[in-house]
Amino acid sequence: MSEEYAYGMWVIVAFNVGLFLFFILSFIKPKKTKEWRNMGIVTAFLVALFSEMYGFPLTIYLLTGWLGEAYPVLQPFNHKYGHLWVVVFGGSTLAWMIVMGLSLAFLLAGYTLMSKGWRQIHGAHDSLVTDGVYAYTRHPQYTGLFLIITGFLIQWPTLLTVIMAPILIFAYMRLSRSEEAVVQQKFTQAYREYASVTPMFFPAMNQWKNFLLTQVEEDA
Fold first, then answer.
1. Residue 4 domain-assigned?
2. Confidence bin at 98 (pLDDT 50/70/90)
3. Closest CA to 148 of 24, 14, 17, 38
């Protein structure tokens, strides 16, 4: 295992921030001031995340300063131990594989929801959409964003991103309520009936199972 300082890669920081911001903007296109403000929070989250992932490991630096020799790794600035959950669960390769696999599952689920939700809503031509992913959640694109944020927190939690994640989620919850007020004025009773049986973001576990089976059948 290398003992070299595995950070300071600011070009990679800029590339990853740009890449993921481009991806998110492809499916969530801000138009109003509130929407751009929320996207600013997303951008700040990505900058904080990838700056610590590849630039300067602020969280690890603070933890080693606070805990000293009690910090449970011999090479805290090796890139493997930037995965703090890996450190918590013993620092083994198996722990690293579990953390990476779980985070990847959340990221892929988030991508699926965002992309399918975007295709459905933009193919509806301003009509009410209640099927497909919208049969499981009223805001699949935001649910997808929340899953992606969760995936990043599993893979690379930091002090800043742990603080920012709830703020980001709360901001999009408020935005979704204001968007629903507009949609309800347009579709009135039809939307009220749809909203009464469809959760805003996260369906029950048995519905997630049905959704996943449906997606597998569609992709087969």
1. no
2. very high
3. 24
- Closest to 137 measured CA to CA, from 160, 110, 157: 110
**181 belongs to a structural domain:** yes
**Which residues, at least 6 apart from 128, have a Cβ–Cβ distance to it below 8 Å?**
183, 187, 190, 191, 194
> Across all residues in the chain, what is the average pLDDT?
88
Q: Which residue has the tokens 């918590």?
A: 88
- 3-class secondary structure for 48-109? HHHHHHHHCCHHHHHHHHHHHHHCCCCCCCCHHHHCHHHHHCCCCHHHHHHHHHHHHHHHHH
pTM of the model: 0.89
State pLDDT tens for residues 187-201: 999 999 999 999 999
**CATH code of the domain containing 94:** 1.20.120
Domain that holds residue 104: 10-219
Q: What is the DSSP letter of 3?
A: -
d(CA 208, CA 202) in angstroms, rounded, equals 9
The whole-number average pLDDT for the span 93-114 is: 92
How many domains does the chain fold into? Answer: 1
